[in-house]
User: Fold these one by one.
Assistant:
Number 1:
Amino acid sequence: MLFNGWSGVIRIIIMALTVYPALIFMLRISGKRTLSKMNMFDMVITVAIGSVVASVMLSNKMTIVEGLTGLGMLIILQFAVTWLEVRSEGFTSLIKGEPQLLLYQGQYMEKALKKERVKKDEVRQAIRAAGLASVEESEAVVLETDGTFSVIKHKHQNGQSSLKDVEGWERNKA
């Protein structure tokens, strides 16, 4: 069916004009962390928010109040999770996981690569993206909790290492 009448189109326009500003308002008051690229839980919330918005706009069975309640609950839950995450190390490790060392001083961490399902060419790609010409120019490559790669260049000064909280670093430090 190509066209079912103007009432459905008008309903979608009205819903979009109502839901979009409400969503922007809710996200604004909930803080920057609500839609940040932080971890798997944040991605799930982002997808769920998109799903609720689409359902409110396109479904005749969901009212605006039900949709806004769903959005509000997702944002409240995201706020609660991030609040707990900042205050509890145990909760953080449950939700977020740990960064993983994939390469250290030119040596690939084979077990870590297999565990994280990362190929050596992906590590080399991250090194190139960081502007380094060779694997040896990097001190380490870390798979972060948000799925991105961090490339640490060889250190030239003494100080606290940025690898301090990375799984596998302490074993390879000595």
Number 2:
Amino acid sequence: MSRRVNLPGADELFRPTAPSGPRDQDPPAVPAAGSGRVKHDEKMTVYLTSDELLAIEQARLELRSVLGRKVDRGRLVRAAIAGALADLDTRGADSELARRLGEE
């Protein structure tokens, strides 16, 4: 009896698992209000200046006083991203996001 183990080749290990080629599907829709308080499966790290983080904290506290309930930073940022993406989808190159990114 041979003690040698048969392993799959590189072609089998690195085979494509999704169909390749152009996709005819629309990109996934982002809710206009953000995803809210749900379990999130993906994570993204964003680096901020101390002034940007302070502005987010001040906005969070202002929203807390206006809405009368706690709003965490993640929810605030997701809602802001959803709003920016909805504006981009609606107005395209005339959106606030496109204008701000064009200034850099």
